[in-house]
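ugh ok so i messed up the first submission bc i forgot one of the chains. this is the corrected input, ALL of the components this time, i swear. 1404 residues overall. if the numbers dont match what u have on ur side tell me asap before i send this to the collaborators (the ones from the other lab, u know who)
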Amino acid sequence: MSRLYDTVEPAVIDEEMLQKAVEEQGPKDEAGRIAKQEGIDFADVLSLRLDFKNILKIDNLWRFTSLTKLQMDNNIIEKIEGMDALVNLVWLDLSFNNIEVIEGLDKLTKIRDLTLYNNKISSIENMDALVDLHVLSVGNNELDQLENLIYLRRFKQLKTLNLSGNPFCDDPNFKHYVIAYLPTLQFLDYRLIDENTRAAANEQYTYPIQQLEHNEEQARKRIEDQEAKEAEFSLHKGAYVENLNGSALFDSMFADDTEGPKLALLPGVDELLTAYKEKYTAICQQIFEYGLKEHQRRGDEVSGFQTAVDEAKEDNRNMGMRKINDFNDYRRKLFTELAQSSDQAHIDTSLEQHNKEIDKLWDSLMALEMQLVDQLEDTIKEFERNMADMVSTFVENVQALISQCRDLENTHNEKLLEVAIVTLEKMVKNELDDELPDDVRMLFVDKDTITNAVGASHDLHLLKIDNKEDDIITRANNWLAALMERVHNEEEVKRNRHRVSEINNFIDHLREEVETFEIQAA
Amino acid sequence: MTILPGGVLLGHSLPLQQPEFAVNTKLVRLGKMDENAENNPEQANNKAEDAEEAEGELSVDDLRAELEKIDVQVPEVEISEVHLQQEDMYSEFPVSYKENTNKEKLILAYAENFRRQYVHLYRDRKLLFLNPVNECGMEKFVSTTIRPTLLPFQELYSYENCAEFVADYLEFQALDPPVDLPNQLVSPTTALKRQKGNSFDFATLLCSMLLGAGYDAYCVSGYATREICLMDQTRDVCPLMKKKGELKSEEKKKEVRKYQVKPPKDLRSKFDLKMQARREAEEEAKAAERRREEEARISELEKPKPDALHGLRIHCWVLVLSGKREVPDSFFIEPLTGNTYPTEDDKFLGIESVWNHQNYWVNMQDCSNGCKDLSFDLGDSAKWEYLLHSSEKPSLEIPDVEAELYEGLDDDEEEQEDEKHLEMPPSWVHPILVTPKEYETRCPLGKKTILYKKARLEKFARYLLKDGMITKLSAYDDYELKNLVSAKEWFVNRQDKLELRVHNHRTGLITEYMLQGRLDCMKEHTYKSGSPGPETDRTMVFYDKARVDGLVKREETPTEMTEHFKDRDDFLYYRHVLFSKRMKKFGASTDANHRPILKITERFHRNREKPASEDVSECVFHIAEDRIQLTFHCEDNRVTASTREFIKPPNANDKSQVITMTPDMTSTFQVDTTKKSPKNLYIYNMLVSLVEAEDQSVQAIRASEEEIKECLLERIREETVSELSISVYDTERNEKAKQHRKELERQQLEEKLRRQEQELDYLAPFLAQMGDPDKIARQQAFKLKEDCLADLKQRLIDKANLIQSRFEKETQELQKRQQWYQQNQVSMTKEDEEEYLAYCSEAMFRIHILELRLNRHKEMAPHKYMALEQKIRTDGRLSDYF
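and heres the new structure output, hopefully the right one now
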């Protein structure tokens, strides 16, 4: 450690240092004067240089939210930290510091140019967030594992890389290894990679790279599949029919059922169950398909409504803009005319006229707005009615289908009970051929026990079905309520207030202008 | 061969065979008589001459004088000359033009029979156009005069271009009298050569070309109106002036959406609306009435004068039937003008007959109603009487599948049947030839003028006029073509890419349309003919894709300039400049005396990357008032736009000074009241950049002005030079290529000559020794001779010596080998011995050859010497001294 700054007291980033740096590096001359006069907001600073400051710890940078370029080279920083607020950073220079581990970069997704030259880094890691990285400099560090460079393959934009001065540079294969494993690279150690070298490198590492690529491809595919599945599931969920395109609901009925599996062991129940499951699943499938279809219909309805509303708004807006433009033309003409006129009486009458025009403009703009409000109100009402109908029909149909499930369950229960009674009778008579496990045998102590067991199983099943039904209906109704709430709020109330305040603001401005003109004229 | 006579179909009651044979025999006799007639005058002449000679022998001098006085030979000579000329004229025609083959004779006879029966049966009908004489005076059947030919020009594959070519190429000669059929029909080749003809010649040529191109075309002989027959188009609107059928703008039907908002309530009085509608309807009706009257008046004015010969005027045109070449409907082509008409057109009053190269049909339908109700199903023998019973009927029948199935079986029968039909002999006309040059020249002498209603159309061949004009259309206001309204000129092959120039004489505006490829990318240029200079009213339209600055249009008036842009990176799409009057400068006038700029308005498209309140939509630089007005874009859901106004600091334009700003220099209106007003620094930076932008805009405007000036200068230069571009493939016209080729040829020739000369001049080295004297003195000549001969002598001796030395070398070698052989003979293997023997025979052969050569050389050398001596004696340069 023969650093010049080692002897100096380590510094901390504080208000004073930042203020000074900002002022020094900020605008100059007249702009600088103005800037100084009103003070520079750290949030507006785009570039900051804090080099040769002997800084030990990165701190107090959270106010620089728009910063795109940050230079902190030639300090004694040991840890990358405190930069989570600098989300807009594109250019980061931390060279000539004492950093040992790459970390704390998880929020800096926009970084394109990262310099960590001359530090004590021994491994390239923790840079997954830097998806747009173009230039990376980690020369003069303590990297010694060539395999570590495979990590850099994830940066599809990486064009320039500097690795010189690391321990692994002594490896005779170093250059070819880097070139072969990082095909997007164009410059290595600030030299253009020529085609011959690239070809040679690729030849040398053909086989391992192929394997690597194969693995990466598979991983990518897995992720894609996963994503596709999730997307599908979320679609189903949006249609409130998730897990209904199979036997999931049926299975869940028996999952928490303690008595069910025991009863299934009774003779003949097996076939009963199979038939039951088949029918049940078919109905579930029906619900599923119906749900998807309805979902699609609802989506179309909403988008149709939205386009119609947007169109109406756009038409209305164009009309309003035309009115304003006409008025602006008139006003411009009037003011040029008045500027040249010196006849006070004429000016007065003209301004009088102008004020009337402003009133007229206000009237017409407000009339337009009221017209739009009326139009939208009607449309929203109609939409609401239709949507309510649609959702209630959906609910009814789903209920009907689910009641079919319930009927199935009832029938099954009856049959099961029958089998149980028969078995009980047989057992009483000791005519039972099959060997039953003990815990099943326990059920057949007397008639009440077995009836209770069957009943409990049945109740549980019904409960599951009821839950599912409730779930679907509640969610559908909630969605409708939320949608209508949003529509009312946004399309009617918010928009209207917005527009009215805008019109008033504009009219006020116009009147103000006339007043200033009058004052000036006077 | 037996002939199935057409009479079978014509007249059932007629005796069939007799007239047929009678005609045949008669015709044969007639042919003989013709020959006699042709020979007769010659014989007569010969007799007369013989007689004269005899007389001359009998009497001596006095009679001779008397005979000279009589001088009867003059008319004879004249006659014979005419005769000779005719002979000459005919002699250039091929044999087939001057004679009839047996087949042709047969068809003529057959046609004659057909005619007789026709005349017999339909006494009230006009004569048929069957066998007119050709240019050599031979009777030829009309169908054989058609010669289907496809010309080797891509354009002539379509009927429109064929018709236009024929109409352009031939000069029209009206029939005289207009109600009689012509008695001569020249071959298409002759018509092309003469470049003139009547409607029958036109139609025959056009029909030949159309048939060659694969159309189902027919010549039609019939009756038409006076305007058609005399190629009078002065009542037609020029096709170039016809407005193209307005493109049907398919009105996009607005989809009625489920949630379409209801239109606002209409609060107007329904009664008022009704009354207004009624008033409008009345006015509309009145206007329509007026229009109708006006139209009636005009049509009355334009109506042709009544024609005494209406319906009698003979005309010939072309019929194209549907079916082939994807022609959907049958139509007529009027060959004189090249126009097409539907078959129902009322300009065509009736049809007597139609024919193509294979057959001849007579119309049996009533033509009292023009051609409107005619059926063109030529296979229908009730409506069209055919001349030849052809095996392939041009009917529209669909071939029977069954018939095809059995076709294989009764092939023989059919063949026999076929043999009975008489076939149309092949055309006697030679293939039609049009050279590329002729094709390009088109109209006789390359010029043609057509008069239309209120318009005159002039056509010129390419490269005929120096400025490249090919078409000129002048539109007039009156029927006498006196009051010029506008002139349109089309150009081709212009170096400056000028395509069309429209000169409106009413408004004085000239619009020039350019093709792509100019350096300044100009597309259209409109200016006043009176003031072509800069800073006047003009509009320039550009090919914006080719321009770096994306300029689409630039409009100029003396005090304004408007530029429109497209697809620019800085979103600028409009720039308007207001100039004030140029101030008079006294004293030293600087070279760039620009008009002072009062105001610049620039408009920008929305840049989606910026928030609307920071994206400038309109920027107005009031340069005279030192003010800058900014209007920003409207946010998507708003109706008002933010504005900002700057008053430029006084020192803004001084580059060396720093711009200072005070808060009262700017005023603003912000749409969004909730938003914080921007910082002073931001506003200051905006001001600085605006000052810069103003500067750039001014520069851009000055550059535009410069460009206009340059453009105009360039246009003037181009107009005066008016160069025509010539394709590199055009070997005829491409002077450069031609010169290059000639140059190459010349060089080759020179090279050849030079080499010959070099070879010839045996004295050159000796002359060079003397220093190449221009004239050789006697002394020198002798020396030359001596030197030359001495040199030859030396060379001959040298050669002999060379041969001798080689001979000796060979001999020595042989001797050596012989010695060696004798010494080692005992220890030699068989191979070695064989090798030695082979060598010996080889060596002996060589020695023998050398000996022969030496002898021959010795023998030839004196001859060579003497030959050279002789040559020197006869040499042109030395001959004076020997």
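quick check: The longest strand of chain B covers residues 216-224. that seems consistent at least. Residues 763-874 of chain B form one domain.
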